[in-house]
Protein backbone atom coordinates (compact mmCIF):
# COMPACT_ATOMS: atom_id res chain seq x y z
CA UNK A 1 0.00 0.00 0.00
CA UNK A 2 1.28 3.44 -0.89
CA UNK A 3 0.43 6.67 0.89
CA UNK A 4 0.40 8.80 -2.28
CA UNK A 5 -2.58 8.45 -4.59
CA UNK A 6 -2.24 9.04 -8.32
CA UNK A 7 -4.32 11.97 -9.66
CA UNK A 8 -7.75 10.82 -10.78
CA UNK A 9 -10.69 12.03 -12.82
CA UNK A 10 -14.12 10.51 -12.26
CA UNK A 11 -16.05 11.38 -15.40
CA UNK A 12 -19.66 10.91 -16.44
CA UNK A 13 -21.20 10.72 -12.97
CA UNK A 14 -24.27 12.33 -11.38
CA UNK A 15 -24.46 14.29 -8.14
CA UNK A 16 -27.37 13.49 -5.78
CA UNK A 17 -29.26 16.49 -7.21
CA UNK A 18 -29.00 14.94 -10.69
CA UNK A 19 -26.32 17.26 -12.04
CA UNK A 20 -23.85 15.59 -14.43
CA UNK A 21 -20.26 16.25 -13.39
CA UNK A 22 -16.71 15.10 -13.56
CA UNK A 23 -14.70 15.07 -10.34
CA UNK A 24 -10.95 15.71 -10.37
CA UNK A 25 -8.89 14.35 -7.48
CA UNK A 26 -5.35 15.45 -6.66
CA UNK A 27 -3.31 14.47 -3.59
CA UNK A 28 -6.31 12.64 -2.17
CA UNK A 29 -8.52 15.74 -2.29
CA UNK A 30 -11.43 16.73 -4.48
CA UNK A 31 -10.77 19.65 -6.78
CA UNK A 32 -13.65 21.70 -8.17
CA UNK A 33 -16.20 19.34 -9.75
CA UNK A 34 -17.92 20.49 -12.90
CA UNK A 35 -19.56 19.38 -16.15
CA UNK A 36 -16.48 19.89 -18.34
CA UNK A 37 -13.37 19.33 -16.27
CA UNK A 38 -10.01 18.57 -17.83
CA UNK A 39 -8.10 15.66 -16.29
CA UNK A 40 -5.35 16.69 -13.87
CA UNK A 41 -1.84 16.05 -15.25
CA UNK A 42 -0.99 12.35 -15.11
CA UNK A 43 -4.49 11.40 -13.97
CA UNK A 44 -6.11 8.02 -14.29
CA UNK A 45 -9.58 8.39 -15.81
CA UNK A 46 -12.56 6.43 -14.54
CA UNK A 47 -15.74 6.62 -16.62
CA UNK A 48 -18.66 6.35 -14.22
CA UNK A 49 -21.15 5.42 -16.92
CA UNK A 50 -23.75 7.84 -15.57
CA UNK A 51 -23.69 6.31 -12.08
CA UNK A 52 -24.87 8.14 -8.97
CA UNK A 53 -22.01 9.69 -7.00
CA UNK A 54 -22.21 9.50 -3.20
CA UNK A 55 -19.73 10.52 -0.53
CA UNK A 56 -17.94 7.66 1.22
CA UNK A 57 -20.07 6.17 3.98
CA UNK A 58 -19.39 6.63 7.69
CA UNK A 59 -19.83 3.86 10.26
CA UNK A 60 -20.52 5.72 13.49
CA UNK A 61 -20.54 2.84 15.95
CA UNK A 62 -19.29 -0.70 15.57
CA UNK A 63 -17.15 -3.25 17.42
CA UNK A 64 -14.51 -4.54 15.02
CA UNK A 65 -12.66 -6.43 17.73
CA UNK A 66 -15.62 -8.70 18.62
CA UNK A 67 -16.71 -9.92 15.22
CA UNK A 68 -16.71 -13.48 13.88
CA UNK A 69 -17.01 -12.16 10.31
CA UNK A 70 -15.88 -14.82 7.84
CA UNK A 71 -15.51 -17.47 10.53
CA UNK A 72 -17.52 -20.57 11.41
CA UNK A 73 -21.02 -19.99 12.75
CA UNK A 74 -21.15 -19.14 16.45
CA UNK A 75 -23.96 -20.98 18.25
CA UNK A 76 -25.61 -18.37 20.46
CA UNK A 77 -27.06 -19.80 23.68
CA UNK A 78 -26.46 -16.78 25.91
CA UNK A 79 -28.91 -15.62 28.60
CA UNK A 80 -31.27 -12.68 28.08
CA UNK A 81 -29.64 -10.05 30.32
CA UNK A 82 -26.93 -7.52 29.49
CA UNK A 83 -24.66 -8.98 32.17
CA UNK A 84 -25.17 -12.47 30.71
CA UNK A 85 -23.91 -11.25 27.35
CA UNK A 86 -20.94 -9.41 28.83
CA UNK A 87 -19.80 -12.38 30.91
CA UNK A 88 -20.40 -14.89 28.12
CA UNK A 89 -18.39 -12.86 25.65
CA UNK A 90 -15.48 -12.30 28.01
CA UNK A 91 -15.27 -16.01 28.86
CA UNK A 92 -15.63 -17.16 25.25
CA UNK A 93 -12.99 -14.80 23.88
CA UNK A 94 -10.53 -15.87 26.54
CA UNK A 95 -11.17 -19.59 26.02
CA UNK A 96 -11.19 -19.39 22.21
CA UNK A 97 -8.15 -17.16 21.88
CA UNK A 98 -10.19 -14.77 19.75
CA UNK A 99 -7.85 -12.88 17.40
CA UNK A 100 -9.01 -9.26 17.44
CA UNK A 101 -6.35 -8.27 14.91
CA UNK A 102 -7.36 -10.78 12.23
CA UNK A 103 -11.08 -10.33 12.81
CA UNK A 104 -10.99 -6.53 12.85
CA UNK A 105 -8.99 -6.55 9.62
CA UNK A 106 -11.47 -8.89 7.90
CA UNK A 107 -14.46 -6.79 8.92
CA UNK A 108 -12.77 -3.45 8.17
CA UNK A 109 -11.91 -4.62 4.65
CA UNK A 110 -15.51 -5.75 4.13
CA UNK A 111 -16.70 -2.30 5.22
CA UNK A 112 -14.29 -0.70 2.76
CA UNK A 113 -15.44 -2.87 -0.15
CA UNK A 114 -19.02 -1.72 0.53
CA UNK A 115 -18.10 1.97 0.52
CA UNK A 116 -17.33 2.82 4.15
CA UNK A 117 -14.26 5.03 4.20
CA UNK A 118 -14.50 6.36 7.77
CA UNK A 119 -15.29 4.31 10.82
CA UNK A 120 -15.52 4.51 14.61
CA UNK A 121 -14.93 1.23 16.45
CA UNK A 122 -15.29 0.57 20.15
CA UNK A 123 -12.66 -1.86 21.48
CA UNK A 124 -12.96 -3.77 24.75
CA UNK A 125 -10.57 -2.81 27.55
CA UNK A 126 -10.84 -4.98 30.65
CA UNK A 127 -8.75 -6.54 33.39
CA UNK A 128 -8.85 -9.99 31.74
CA UNK A 129 -7.52 -8.96 28.32
CA UNK A 130 -5.76 -5.72 29.23
CA UNK A 131 -4.84 -3.93 25.98
CA UNK A 132 -4.67 -7.13 23.92
CA UNK A 133 -7.74 -6.41 21.78
CA UNK A 134 -6.70 -2.80 21.35
CA UNK A 135 -3.31 -3.89 20.06
CA UNK A 136 -5.00 -6.03 17.41
CA UNK A 137 -7.22 -3.19 16.21
CA UNK A 138 -4.30 -0.76 16.21
CA UNK A 139 -2.56 -3.16 13.83
CA UNK A 140 -5.60 -3.08 11.56
CA UNK A 141 -5.72 0.70 11.64
CA UNK A 142 -2.04 0.85 10.70
CA UNK A 143 -2.45 -1.69 7.88
CA UNK A 144 -5.32 0.30 6.34
CA UNK A 145 -4.06 3.76 7.30
CA UNK A 146 -3.98 5.08 3.72
CA UNK A 147 -7.47 3.96 2.77
CA UNK A 148 -9.61 3.84 5.93
CA UNK A 149 -9.93 6.68 8.43
CA UNK A 150 -10.53 4.82 11.70
CA UNK A 151 -11.25 6.13 15.18
CA UNK A 152 -10.81 3.78 18.14
CA UNK A 153 -12.85 4.08 21.34
CA UNK A 154 -11.35 2.57 24.51
CA UNK A 155 -14.44 0.84 25.85
CA UNK A 156 -14.90 -0.71 29.32
CA UNK A 157 -17.38 -3.39 28.20
CA UNK A 158 -17.27 -5.16 31.59
CA UNK A 159 -17.63 -1.95 33.58
CA UNK A 160 -15.08 0.39 35.10
CA UNK A 161 -15.57 0.93 38.84
CA UNK A 162 -16.75 -2.63 39.44
CA UNK A 163 -13.47 -3.98 38.03
CA UNK A 164 -10.59 -2.23 39.83
CA UNK A 165 -7.70 -1.54 37.51
CA UNK A 166 -9.89 -0.80 34.49
CA UNK A 167 -9.59 2.97 34.90
CA UNK A 168 -5.80 2.77 34.69
CA UNK A 169 -6.06 0.47 31.66
CA UNK A 170 -8.32 2.99 29.93
CA UNK A 171 -5.71 5.67 30.50
CA UNK A 172 -3.05 3.36 29.05
CA UNK A 173 -5.28 2.71 26.02
CA UNK A 174 -5.67 6.44 25.40
CA UNK A 175 -1.92 6.89 25.70
CA UNK A 176 -1.35 3.97 23.30
CA UNK A 177 -3.43 5.46 20.49
CA UNK A 178 -7.16 5.21 21.26
CA UNK A 179 -8.88 8.38 20.07
CA UNK A 180 -11.98 8.43 22.27
CA UNK A 181 -12.86 7.38 25.82
CA UNK A 182 -15.79 5.01 26.12
CA UNK A 183 -18.10 4.36 29.06
CA UNK A 184 -20.99 2.05 29.89
CA UNK A 185 -24.22 2.32 31.91
CA UNK A 186 -22.89 4.11 35.01
CA UNK A 187 -25.93 3.21 37.13
CA UNK A 188 -26.83 -0.33 36.10
CA UNK A 189 -23.34 -1.70 35.41
CA UNK A 190 -21.02 0.32 37.66
CA UNK A 191 -23.73 0.83 40.29
CA UNK A 192 -22.52 4.35 41.02
CA UNK A 193 -23.52 6.86 38.33
CA UNK A 194 -21.96 9.82 40.11
CA UNK A 195 -18.63 8.12 40.74
CA UNK A 196 -18.52 6.50 37.31
CA UNK A 197 -19.24 9.71 35.42
CA UNK A 198 -16.83 11.70 37.56
CA UNK A 199 -14.06 9.21 36.79
CA UNK A 200 -14.90 9.16 33.08
CA UNK A 201 -14.89 12.93 32.66
CA UNK A 202 -11.73 13.32 34.74
CA UNK A 203 -9.94 10.76 32.58
CA UNK A 204 -11.12 12.37 29.37
CA UNK A 205 -9.95 15.79 30.51
CA UNK A 206 -6.58 14.38 31.64
CA UNK A 207 -5.88 12.92 28.21
CA UNK A 208 -7.69 15.57 26.16
CA UNK A 209 -10.05 13.05 24.56
CA UNK A 210 -13.75 13.13 23.66
CA UNK A 211 -16.26 10.70 25.19
CA UNK A 212 -18.63 8.18 23.62
CA UNK A 213 -20.81 6.49 26.26
CA UNK A 214 -23.05 3.45 25.78
CA UNK A 215 -26.29 4.29 27.57
CA UNK A 216 -28.66 1.32 27.49
CA UNK A 217 -30.32 2.27 30.78
CA UNK A 218 -34.09 2.43 30.34
CA UNK A 219 -36.72 5.02 31.17
CA UNK A 220 -36.32 7.00 34.38
CA UNK A 221 -32.97 5.38 35.30
CA UNK A 222 -31.52 6.33 31.93
CA UNK A 223 -32.95 9.84 32.20
CA UNK A 224 -31.35 10.26 35.63
CA UNK A 225 -27.95 9.16 34.29
CA UNK A 226 -28.32 11.36 31.23
CA UNK A 227 -29.07 14.41 33.41
CA UNK A 228 -25.92 13.71 35.43
CA UNK A 229 -23.91 13.36 32.24
CA UNK A 230 -25.22 16.65 30.86
CA UNK A 231 -24.33 18.35 34.15
CA UNK A 232 -20.75 17.18 33.68
CA UNK A 233 -20.59 18.26 30.05
CA UNK A 234 -21.57 21.75 31.16
CA UNK A 235 -19.28 21.82 34.20
CA UNK A 236 -16.21 20.57 32.31
CA UNK A 237 -16.74 22.62 29.16
CA UNK A 238 -16.95 19.52 26.97
CA UNK A 239 -19.68 20.82 24.70
CA UNK A 240 -19.34 19.27 21.26
CA UNK A 241 -17.11 16.48 22.57
CA UNK A 242 -19.60 13.89 23.83
CA UNK A 243 -21.66 11.23 22.05
CA UNK A 244 -24.40 9.28 23.80
CA UNK A 245 -24.80 5.96 22.02
CA UNK A 246 -28.16 4.17 21.99
CA UNK A 247 -29.92 6.50 24.49
CA UNK A 248 -32.89 4.14 24.73
CA UNK A 249 -34.35 6.23 27.54
CA UNK A 250 -35.12 9.09 25.14
CA UNK A 251 -37.49 6.83 23.26
CA UNK A 252 -39.14 5.50 26.41
CA UNK A 253 -39.90 8.72 28.28
CA UNK A 254 -43.42 10.11 27.78
CA UNK A 255 -41.99 13.59 27.26
CA UNK A 256 -38.22 13.99 26.74
CA UNK A 257 -38.41 17.65 25.70
CA UNK A 258 -36.40 19.08 28.62
CA UNK A 259 -33.60 16.56 28.07
CA UNK A 260 -33.58 17.17 24.33
CA UNK A 261 -33.32 20.93 24.87
CA UNK A 262 -30.24 20.45 27.09
CA UNK A 263 -28.71 17.98 24.63
CA UNK A 264 -29.14 20.53 21.85
CA UNK A 265 -27.79 23.41 23.91
CA UNK A 266 -24.71 21.45 25.02
CA UNK A 267 -24.04 20.11 21.52
CA UNK A 268 -24.14 16.48 22.62
CA UNK A 269 -24.55 14.05 19.70
CA UNK A 270 -26.68 10.91 19.69
CA UNK A 271 -25.96 7.57 18.04
CA UNK A 272 -28.64 5.03 17.15
CA UNK A 273 -28.42 1.63 15.51
CA UNK A 274 -32.23 1.83 15.18
CA UNK A 275 -32.83 -1.57 16.79
CA UNK A 276 -36.34 -2.93 16.18
CA UNK A 277 -36.68 -4.31 19.71
CA UNK A 278 -35.75 -1.26 21.81
CA UNK A 279 -36.97 2.33 22.17
CA UNK A 280 -35.03 4.79 20.05
CA UNK A 281 -34.38 8.53 20.26
CA UNK A 282 -36.86 10.60 18.19
CA UNK A 283 -34.97 11.11 14.94
CA UNK A 284 -36.89 13.91 13.26
CA UNK A 285 -37.50 15.78 16.48
CA UNK A 286 -33.79 15.70 17.27
CA UNK A 287 -32.91 17.01 13.83
CA UNK A 288 -35.49 19.79 14.07
CA UNK A 289 -33.88 20.85 17.36
CA UNK A 290 -30.40 20.92 15.84
CA UNK A 291 -29.17 17.75 17.58
CA UNK A 292 -26.70 15.67 15.60
CA UNK A 293 -28.11 12.13 15.48
CA UNK A 294 -26.36 9.53 13.38
CA UNK A 295 -26.24 5.80 12.71
CA UNK A 296 -24.11 2.72 13.19
CA UNK A 297 -24.37 -1.05 13.10
CA UNK A 298 -23.24 -1.80 16.65
CA UNK A 299 -21.96 -5.40 16.77
CA UNK A 300 -21.81 -7.53 13.64
CA UNK A 301 -21.86 -11.35 13.84
CA UNK A 302 -20.46 -11.69 17.35
CA UNK A 303 -21.41 -13.42 20.60
CA UNK A 304 -24.02 -10.74 21.23
CA UNK A 305 -25.87 -10.95 17.94
CA UNK A 306 -25.97 -13.12 14.80
CA UNK A 307 -27.16 -10.15 12.76
CA UNK A 308 -25.50 -7.35 10.84
CA UNK A 309 -23.51 -6.77 7.67
CA UNK A 310 -20.80 -4.16 7.05
CA UNK A 311 -22.95 -2.19 4.61
CA UNK A 312 -24.01 1.30 5.61
CA UNK A 313 -26.65 1.48 2.88
CA UNK A 314 -28.34 -1.46 4.59
CA UNK A 315 -28.05 0.29 7.96
CA UNK A 316 -29.63 3.38 6.38
CA UNK A 317 -32.48 1.18 5.13
CA UNK A 318 -32.94 -0.27 8.63
CA UNK A 319 -33.03 3.25 10.06
CA UNK A 320 -35.69 4.06 7.50
CA UNK A 321 -37.74 1.03 8.49
CA UNK A 322 -37.43 1.70 12.23
CA UNK A 323 -38.49 5.33 11.88
CA UNK A 324 -41.13 4.71 9.19
CA UNK A 325 -39.30 6.82 6.61
CA UNK A 326 -41.07 6.34 3.27
CA UNK A 327 -40.86 9.58 1.30
CA UNK A 328 -37.77 10.19 -0.80
CA UNK A 329 -36.80 13.21 1.30
CA UNK A 330 -37.17 11.10 4.46
CA UNK A 331 -34.95 8.37 3.00
CA UNK A 332 -32.37 11.09 2.38
CA UNK A 333 -32.43 11.64 6.17
CA UNK A 334 -31.67 7.96 6.69
CA UNK A 335 -28.70 8.29 4.34
CA UNK A 336 -27.55 11.44 6.12
CA UNK A 337 -27.35 9.34 9.31
CA UNK A 338 -24.60 7.23 7.72
CA UNK A 339 -22.88 10.04 5.86
CA UNK A 340 -22.68 13.74 6.75
CA UNK A 341 -24.36 13.51 10.17
CA UNK A 342 -22.12 10.61 11.16
CA UNK A 343 -19.02 12.49 10.04
CA UNK A 344 -20.14 15.48 12.10
CA UNK A 345 -21.01 13.40 15.15
CA UNK A 346 -17.67 11.57 15.12
CA UNK A 347 -15.64 14.64 14.19
CA UNK A 348 -14.35 13.39 10.83
CA UNK A 349 -13.13 16.51 9.04
CA UNK A 350 -13.25 17.53 5.38
CA UNK A 351 -16.22 15.34 4.51
CA UNK A 352 -18.42 15.62 1.44
CA UNK A 353 -18.40 16.13 -2.31
CA UNK A 354 -17.14 19.71 -2.36
CA UNK A 355 -13.77 21.04 -3.45
CA UNK A 356 -11.18 20.50 -0.72
CA UNK A 357 -12.93 17.50 0.82
CA UNK A 358 -11.06 14.26 1.27
CA UNK A 359 -11.69 12.18 -1.86
CA UNK A 360 -13.98 9.48 -0.44
CA UNK A 361 -16.38 8.61 -3.23
CA UNK A 362 -18.83 5.81 -4.03
CA UNK A 363 -20.50 5.07 -7.36
CA UNK A 364 -23.74 3.09 -7.53
CA UNK A 365 -26.21 2.34 -10.29
CA UNK A 366 -29.22 4.05 -8.73
CA UNK A 367 -31.46 6.93 -9.77
CA UNK A 368 -31.50 8.79 -6.45
CA UNK A 369 -30.32 8.54 -2.85
CA UNK A 370 -33.67 7.04 -1.87
CA UNK A 371 -33.28 4.41 -4.60
CA UNK A 372 -29.75 3.61 -3.39
CA UNK A 373 -30.90 3.17 0.23
CA UNK A 374 -33.76 0.86 -0.73
CA UNK A 375 -32.04 -1.17 -3.47
CA UNK A 376 -28.55 -1.22 -1.91
CA UNK A 377 -26.87 -1.90 -5.28
CA UNK A 378 -23.39 -3.32 -5.54
CA UNK A 379 -20.80 -0.61 -5.21
CA UNK A 380 -19.57 0.04 -8.74
CA UNK A 381 -16.50 1.94 -7.58
CA UNK A 382 -15.12 3.00 -4.19
CA UNK A 383 -12.48 5.68 -3.84
CA UNK A 384 -10.96 6.33 -0.41
CA UNK A 385 -8.47 9.10 0.25
CA UNK A 386 -8.00 9.31 -3.52
CA UNK A 387 -7.25 5.59 -3.94
CA UNK A 388 -9.48 3.28 -5.98
CA UNK A 389 -10.02 0.57 -3.36
CA UNK A 390 -12.92 -1.46 -4.76
CA UNK A 391 -14.62 -2.26 -8.07
CA UNK A 392 -17.96 -4.04 -8.37
CA UNK A 393 -17.90 -5.02 -4.72
CA UNK A 394 -14.40 -6.51 -4.76
CA UNK A 395 -11.34 -4.90 -3.19
CA UNK A 396 -8.40 -3.88 -5.33
CA UNK A 397 -4.84 -4.71 -4.30
CA UNK A 398 -4.62 -1.33 -2.55
CA UNK A 399 -6.78 -2.62 0.33
From TrEMBL:
Alphabetical list of Pfam families matching this protein: Amidohydro_3
Domain Amidohydrolase: residue ranges: 47-389
Gene Ontology molecular function, alphabetical: hydrolase activity, acting on carbon-nitrogen (but not peptide) bonds, in cyclic amidines
Highest taxon in the source lineage: Bacteria
InterPro entries, per database record: Amidohydro_3 (IPR013108), Metal-dep_hydrolase_composite (IPR011059), Metal_Hydrolase (IPR032466), Metallo-hydrolase_Enzymes (IPR052349)
Name recorded for this polypeptide: Cytosine/adenosine deaminase
Organism: Paraburkholderia lycopersici
Amino acid sequence: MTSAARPLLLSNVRLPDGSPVSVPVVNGRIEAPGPNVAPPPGAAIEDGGGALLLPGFVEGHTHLDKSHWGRAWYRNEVGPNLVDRIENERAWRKAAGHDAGAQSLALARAFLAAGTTRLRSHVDIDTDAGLHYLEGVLETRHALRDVLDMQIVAFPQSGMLIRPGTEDLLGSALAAGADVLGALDPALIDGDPVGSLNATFALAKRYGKPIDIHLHEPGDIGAFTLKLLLDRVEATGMQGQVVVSHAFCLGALPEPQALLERIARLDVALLTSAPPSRPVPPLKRCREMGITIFGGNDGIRDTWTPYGVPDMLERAMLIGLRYDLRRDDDLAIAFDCVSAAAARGCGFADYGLHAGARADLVLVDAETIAHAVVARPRRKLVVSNGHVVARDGALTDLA
